[in-house]
Each structure stands twice: as structure tokens, then as C-alpha cells.
Predict the structure.
Amino acid sequence: MITVTRLNHTPVVINPDLIVFIEETPDTMLTLTNGEKIVVQETVMEVIKKVTDYRRSIFNPCIPIDS
């Protein structure tokens, strides 16, 4: 699971496996498999890094996750 921040500064934890695509319009919008769209404060690259770190922690738990 990754934590992202909605525009109203509320953190939300999402399953990165549910992300279909990420758009920057100019806000970053995550579209999930169920069609739900979540607008977040993080940039596209920050979300990608969070997803990459999460997956890395699953497949190689010996590598610590950067916060």
C-alpha cells in the first residue's frame, strides 16, 4: 500500500495494483480499476517512486524503503 495526499491535505492509502494510469492535468490524477479518480498533491514522478519502492519492498524485503 502507498500513502498519497489529497488536495485537501488528507492522506489516503491506496493499493498500487489498482492504479490503471496517472495523469498530470496539471494536478496529478490517479485512475483506479473501478473507474474512481483520485486527485493528489504528489507529482507523477513521486507516485511512480512510491509504487516502485512498494514493489521493491515486496520482491526484495532486504532493501529498506525510503520515506
About this structure: The first strand starts at residue 2 and ends at 5.
